[in-house]
Write a structure and sequence with these properties.
The structure holds two protein chains of two kinds.
Chain A: H1 2-20, E1 26-28, E2 35-38, H2 40-59, H3 62-86, E3 90-93, E4 99-100, E5 104-112, E6 119-125, E7 140-144, E8 149-157, E9 162-165, E10 169-173, E11 180-186, E12 191-195, H4 204-207, E13 216-219, E14 225-231, H5 243-247, E15 253-262, E16 265-268, H6 277-293, E17 298-302, E18 305-310, H7 313-325
Parallel strand pairs in A: 4-12, 16-17
Antiparallel strand pairs in A: 1-3, 2-11, 3-5, 5-8, 6-7, 6-10, 9-12, 10-11, 13-15, 14-15, 17-18
Helix pairs in contact in A: 2-3, 6-7
Chain B: H1 9-27, H2 32-50, H3 58-79, H4 83-100, H5 104-124, H6 128-148, H7 157-181, E1 205-206, H8 210-214, E2 220-226, E3 238-244, E4 246-247, E5 252-253, H9 260-269, E6 278-280, E7 285-291, E8 305-307, E9 313-314, E10 320-321, E11 330-336, E12 340-342, H10 348-353, H11 363-375, H12 379-392, E13 396-397, H13 408-416, E14 418-419, H14 421-434, E15 439-446, E16 449-451, E17 456-460, E18 464-472, E19 476-480, H15 482-486, H16 488-492, H17 495-498, H18 520-541, H19 545-556, H20 561-583, H21 594-608, H22 619-629, H23 634-650, H24 656-686
Parallel strand pairs in B: 13-14
Antiparallel strand pairs in B: 1-5, 2-7, 2-17, 3-15, 4-5, 6-12, 7-11, 8-11, 9-10, 15-18, 16-17, 18-19
Helix pairs in contact in B: 1-2, 1-5, 1-6, 2-4, 3-4, 4-5, 5-6, 6-7, 7-20, 11-14, 21-24, 22-23, 23-24
Classes of the chains: A alpha+beta, B alpha+beta.
């Protein structure tokens, strides 16, 4: 009963919120979308001003009255200054990168100010909401005091494969006095695609495939045959350094070994017979990652569509996106 | 160790400064060891911050709580539950919280306590200096709050200070309005303010040397302002305090009410009503006195002072008493008839009290008095003869009176012959009583310095004085000042002139500006500063429910509840709006040309028809889209866009002269465009 009431209230609140602060790529904060409430410290401050006031009454001390009134005035001004610290701040959504399920999705938000204003101690995060109970992650802090624009990365946990719509972004400030917090929750229409969660398994079936064919791909990170030399880059393993060439005074060079691998691998939906849809997608995802890493040429067949064999990052992205969107239509 | 919240470095420095500043004025009133503990805690906090020491462990904290409890009990036992002990305890808890503060919440507890401690400072003093100091403390505390909420990487202390001052200045108007209009409430329950401060000023006991001790002090006793421009000559400025009518051979005392004797006599005294004991002559003099805290209950005023507001008690001998010790500056209005006769009929009980002398001792004086009385015919002549004796013999007026033995009156009158006013008043009264003339000693102040800037009088502790009142048949009590016979300068020009060459004068206040009255600009500055203090007291410190009521009445006529509510709410709203405007500097609206405004209004019309111009879509691109989607609008839209583009972009960069001529053309086009609107609207209706 209570739950359904909460749910109903929440739905109503969300609808009100959507109407009050509609989703936009760019939102400038103003009095229509900034909310302010006193913090716990603010309550303490007001309580103390009450103490001072009572003492002023009891001892009939005129200046203690003045002090109590000064405290109240400071509190009221802190409301206005907190508002001021958010007002006219413009938030613009930037493109977000796709992530694997379970990772933190990184949304980039550009903050910009009008030249006469300063915005300090801004906190940006995705708060836990009713629909997304555990999207909250670390809070990003920034200032807009010196530079006119600032790009902030805000993170949210991705739980479900598919299109991920970022929850409402909360931008919050307690500046300057910490007595009240001003905040706004804006929907910047930020999206990203969540790939299936890759599940590791032994990929023997690809390794045992026919090798040494005419169409051979080269895996540059192999270890079987000597392929050539290349210049040493800091960070490379010292074990592969061709010390002979160093001794000859030709500088540090690296011995490269390669594997010759079979091409034209087909990833098939039916390969994982007996698994459910998500499990299949997770395994296919793992395959795509691994095969792209080793530079294989591979294709993929999903129910209803087929991707002809290819290689490279573009191909990888295309396949992963297809996996992420699988079942959407 | 868990890496929790770290207090930003600048914030900690600000807080420590605020704590030290707020405790500094308390240190003079607190026991020394509390200051030591406070210093210790501040140092500990700094060391925690530097990583040399850890936060206090659980054991230490328990020990601290126990320690504080024990201390508070012993404090209460020693000096009672008073302001001093409460303030000390508050300070202790405050500094202990300092070393224990880890979370932001803890810091806010310390910050809130800073404000409460500032309030405590006001309980002790409400002077201009204290107010300025507390303003500084509040600003620093606000700086701490700002530093706490800033990015710790911004080490911009100057910016923090600037913002703190800015907020404080913006808060000021609202504070003033609240101060003026917020209804003042009378104290909910009376809290006696007990402070351990020593009493100052004239006391109800007078031994030789007491008044001269005050002569060494240049502290202010009280300030007086006469109403209706009354000016009294210096020799008339006798500020009567207490009547001392009990002499034990060494000390003059006020007969205390607690003794059975005094209860009986006071009952006898009041058989005659208060009014019947007075015969007033002439007009009353009205004046206001602002008394510095004395920690004693009695008040000072001119002869036969009556308080206008009827707040005080009248003593048996026309003295005035406050209900309780005066621990804060007190302002009161008095009305005096300086030409008056009191107690023309003296009751026996009163007569006996004012004739009472110790049975033995001071034989030479008694003999001298008897002989002198026999040589003249009336009591009055006798009194004048005693004054003549002081005048004609080698008596000295000095602060450094020689020490006296057992027969004080004798030794002073016939051997040392040098003393301050208490010696003269004491021996004069003794000589009166010795021959059966009722007489008594009065202590208070005499003289004053005029402050020319605000036209009020300043009475200092060195103005303390003692004189006599003698009762004559048919005349009542008459004031006699034997000091005047010895040093007429004292009475006519004041104690500064009389004691100009006395090294002991004001020696307790070596650096008091009052000592350097001879240096013109310094003296002017002293008087000017005192005038500011006086006005501050008049305008701010004394602003209470009565003054508030008077102010309302003067401004708005009869005060009714509705009027009050209306006034307060409207004032509050006005100030809020004013403050809001100064703080929220509303962004200037983009100034659009008329042609732009028109184009945007057209776009708005189109948006209603679901033709929304996209972000970043130029007018031509928009026109194309409109034409494609709604061919029936194409003609109007094309013409409109063409005009708009030509006027807005092509003809935008014209010289000033051209601009002026084009302006007229623009206007005609504008009206033409406007005329096109109905057509557009008509199209929409047609759809």
């Amino acid at each position: 009963m209570a739950f359904s009431f909460r749910e109903a209230f929440n739905k109503k609140f969300q609808r009100w919120m959507a109407k009050r602060i509609p989703p936009r790529e760019q939102v400038t904060l103003n009095r229509k979308n900034i909310f302010i409430v006193p913090t716990r410290n603010g309550m303490l401050f007001i309580f103390c001003s009450g103490l001072v006031f009572i003492a002023a009454i009891n001892y009939a001390v005129s200046l203690a009255f003045a002090l109590a009134f000064l405290m109240v005035s400071i509190f009221i001004l802190s409301i206005l200054h907190s508002f001021n610290n958010l007002s006219q701040l413009t938030l613009t959504s930037r493109s977000a990168q796709d992530v694997f399920c379970g990772e933190e999705a990184c949304f980039r938000v550009q903050l910009s100010r009008s030249p006469k204003r300063r915005h300090e101690s801004l906190e940006l995060n995705f708060p836990n909401s009713f629909e997304n109970p555990s999207t909250a992650s670390t809070t990003s802090y920034t200032d807009l005091a010196v530079r006119d624009t600032e790009e902030v990365k805000v993170f949210a946990f991705s739980h479900k494969r598919g299109e991920f719509k970022a929850p409402r972004l909360r931008v919050l400030t307690r500046f300057p006095l910490g007595l009240c917090r001003a905040w706004s929750v804006v929907d910047l229409n930020m999206h990203c695609l969540v790939y299936p969660r890759p599940v590791q398994f032994l990929m023997n079936q690809f390794d045992s495939g026919s090798s040494g064919g005419s169409d051979s791909a080269i895996n540059r990170e192999g270890s079987e045959d000597f392929y050539g030399l290349r210049d040493y880059v800091p960070g490379d393993s010292l074990r592969q350094v061709a010390w002979k060439t160093v001794a000859r005074g030709q500088g540090m060079q690296l011995k490269q070994f390669v594997d010759y691998v079979d091409n034209k691998i087909w990833l098939d939906w039916d390969m994982f017979y007996g698994f459910n849809v998500e499990e299949r997608l997770s395994r296919l995802c793992y395959c795509v990652i691994q095969l792209s890493k080793t530079g294989n040429v591979f294709g993929m067949r999903l129910p209803g569509c087929e991707f002809s064999p290819a290689t490279g990052p573009e191909h990888r992205k295309k396949l992963l996106r297809a996996l992420a969107r699988f079942g959407d239509q | 160790m868990e890496l929790g919240y770290q207090i930003p470095r600048p914030a900690l420095i600000w807080i420590l400064i605020a704590v030290v500043l707020v405790l500094l004025p308390q240190t003079i009133r607190m026991p020394v060891w509390i200051s030591v503990v406070a210093l210790f805690c501040v140092c500990w906090r700094v060391l925690i911050f530097k990583g040399r020491l850890d936060y206090p462990s659980r054991m230490v904290r328990v020990a601290v709580v126990l320690f504080t409890l024990i201390v508070s009990f012993s404090q209460i036992r020693n000096i009672g539950i008073g302001l001093d002990s409460a303030a000390s305890l508050l300070a202790l808890g405050f500094v202990f919280k300092l070393i224990e503060m880890r979370q932001k919440r803890d810091i806010y507890v310390v910050i809130s306590l800073c404000f409460v401690m500032s309030m405590v400072a006001f309980l002790y003093s409400q002077s201009v200096l204290t107010t300025l100091y507390i303003t500084l403390v509040v600003a620093v505390t606000m700086g701490a709050m700002i530093a706490l909420n800033r990015n710790s990487l911004i080490a911009d202390n100057r910016g923090t200070a600037k913002l703190a001052i800015k907020i404080a200045v913006q808060a000021l108007p609202l504070t003033i309005v609240l101060f003026l209009v917020f209804p003042r409430i009378a104290p909910l329950w009376a809290v006696p303010m007990q402070t351990g401060q020593n009493s100052t000023g004239v006391t109800d006991e007078m031994s030789p040397g007491d008044i001269s001790a005050l002569g060494r002090s240049a502290e202010l006793a009280f300030r007086v302002r006469f109403e209706d421009g009354v000016e009294l000559a210096h020799e008339q400025l006798y500020w009567r305090g207490l009547v001392l009518d009990n002499f034990d051979g060494v000390t003059w005392r006020r007969t205390r009410n607690s003794s059975a004797y005094s209860v009986a006599t006071s009952l006898a005294d009041f058989r005659i009503s208060y009014e019947d004991r007075i015969r007033t002559v002439g007009e009353p003099i009205n004046y206001n006195v602002i008394l510095e805290p004395t920690q004693q209950p009695w008040l000072f005023g001119l002869h036969l002072a009556e308080d206008v507001d009827d707040e005080f008690f009248n003593g048996r001998n026309f003295e005035l008493f406050n209900n309780g010790r005066i621990t804060q500056r007190l302002s009161y209005d008095l009305s005096s008839f300086i030409q008056n006769q009191t107690d023309v009929l003296l009751l026996d009980s009163s007569r006996n009290r004012n004739l009472d002398l110790p049975n033995d001792g001071n034989e030479r004086s008694r003999e001298f008095a008897r002989e002198l009385r026999e040589s003249v015919s009336t009591d009055r002549q006798y009194a004048n003869a005693v004054l003549m004796h002081f005048l004609q013999n080698q008596y000295f007026y000095t602060l450094n009176a020689p020490l006296l033995g057992d027969n004080r009156i004798d030794e002073f009158l016939f051997d040392t012959m040098a003393g301050f006013c208490e010696h003269y008043a004491s021996s004069f009264t003794y000589l009166m009583r010795a021959v059966g003339i009722p007489a008594r000693v009065v202590v208070g102040y005499h003289g004053a310095e005029t402050n020319p800037y605000e036209n009020y009088l300043m009475v200092y502790q060195y103005n303390a004085h003692a004189w006599s009142e003698v009762w004559f048949e048919g005349e009542g009590w008459v004031r006699f000042d034997p000091t005047g016979a010895v040093s007429p300068t004292r009475i006519e020009q004041g104690v500064q002139e009389a004691l100009r060459d006395d090294p002991a004068f004001m020696e307790d206040d070596l650096f008091s500006a009052a000592r350097f009255g001879g240096i013109g600009w310094l003296n002017a500055m002293r008087l000017r500063l005192d005038a500011i203090e006086y006005e501050w007291n008049e305008l701010v410190v004394n602003y209470d429910e009565d003054v508030q009521f008077e102010l309302f009445e003067r401004l708005f006529g009869e005060v009714t509840e509705q009027k009050l509510i209306l006034l307060m709410s409207s004032l509050a709203i006005i100030v809020m709006i004013a403050v809001g405007f100064t703080v929220i500097n509303i962004e200037p609206r983009i100034r659009r040309t008329p042609i732009d405004r028109f184009y945007l209004s057209v776009c708005k019309e189109l948006a209603k028809m679901k033709l929304v111009r996209r972000r970043g879509e130029g007018p031509i691109a928009f026109r194309d889209r409109v034409c494609a989607e709604r061919p029936e609008l194409a003609a109007a839209m094309t013409e409109l866009t063409e005009l708009y583009v030509r006027l807005n972009y092509v003809e935008k960069y014209l010289s000033e002269a051209e601009q002026k001529s084009e302006l007229r053309a623009l206007k005609t086009v504008y009206s033409k465009l406007k005329a096109k609107m109905p057509a557009l609207a008509g199209l929409r209706r047609g759809v």
